[in-house]
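[job 4471] stage=fold_predict status=RUNNING
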Amino acid sequence: MILAILIAVVTGASAPVSAEAGWSWPVEAPHPIIRPYIAPETPYSAGHRGIDIGAGASIEVRAPAAGVVHFAGTVVDRPVLSIRHSGGLITSYEPVTSALARGDPVAQGEIVGELQPGHCSVSCLHFGVRLNGEYVSPLNYLGAIPRAILLPTRKP
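[job 4471] inference complete, writing structure tokens
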């Protein structure tokens, strides 16, 4: 494994990646990222506080990890679902309708809602993750970002 990672760093190939905390994707494969996470400069600046995942014909949305429903309802004009997970994490999904209510427990992989049209020009799910109240890239938890690898410095 270490040799494969070192080869990947030297050659620029993709390194093997494992998902942080064992999360699964909220929609069926493939998982094309239609719009990436863009961190805002300040909490009130423009940005894209999540990722838009192409869903194809899939309408089932699943919990990426076990948790408890934090919110299920409408925000402005979109149906939104949020799930509280361990470690100070909250995931959000839109536009998603759900029969679940605040306080309902969910298991990893459980269907938690149904994707509705309207967020993107194609069928897509907006998936956000907050860590202790601050938005972070969902790819950190889905195993889609290779870990940084520190290499030893060369002696002169």
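[job 4471] summary: The chain has two helices and eleven strands.
[job 4471] exit 0
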